[in-house]
Amino acid sequence: MYCCRAHPSLGRELVAAKVYRPLETRSFKRDGVYQQGRDRGARPDARVLRALGKKTQHGRAHKFSAWIGHEMRTLEKLHAAGCDVPCPIERVGPVILMEYVGDAEHPAPVLVGVPLSTDEATRVYQRILENVDLFLAQHRVHADLSPYNMLFWNGAVTIIDFPQAVDPRYNNDALELLVRDLANTNPFFAALGVDVVAPRERAMSLWRRHVDAEG
Ligand SMILES: Nc1ncnc2c1ncn2[C@@H]1O[C@H](COP(=O)(O)OP(=O)(O)O)[C@@H](O)[C@H]1O
Ligand SMILES: [Mg+2]
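Above are the sequence and the magnesium ion SMILES. Below is the predicted complex in structure-token form.
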């Protein structure tokens, strides 16, 4: 991740550039789970499918690119829906340019380690739950949610890091990933004295409202 001085045409002084490392070095965490159903709606290209199956260079390059494109589209969708995510600016090859959170001296810290009072932590936690709800309304489960993927700046939280996000309509593991997202978010807040939700119950209730209701 790089903080860059922006071209005046972008209308902001600083932008964040998330540079994806080539496939050889980036470990695609349990890629299969997250890819499931990803290409729904897109016409599968037989040549690409064969290449993916064979783990050829062409197949790997296609996967790498799909992963980045998916994060860009997810950021666009969620930002447009009013979620607390960085405003995406542009994707250029392996780079996503997005709103930079922080100032010229300091990037915003990740939430882990930020000393919050119980009241402030409660407010931030509620806002995160609202975001999880908004994500589902946009057919997304973050799938790597934790205080390590939340930035804290000027009293507000920004949720980042979406390449592995899944669409609950098409991904069989989405409910479990949603439970895990809530479970991974809770301990940080519980330690600050926040009254946290039961992950499975909250996930089921969100599921009934957003996924079953649309079924
Ligand atoms: N929009 C942003 N503004 C400022 N810092 C950011 C921004 N996005 C990410 N970062 C920083 O870069 C780190 C890595 O970004 P992230 O999207 O979580 O990728 P990954 O965890 O896959 O490396 C974050 O932990 C955070 O410190
Ligand atoms: Mg991250």
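Residues 118-212 form a domain with the Transferase(Phosphotransferase); domain 1 fold (CATH 1.10.510.10).
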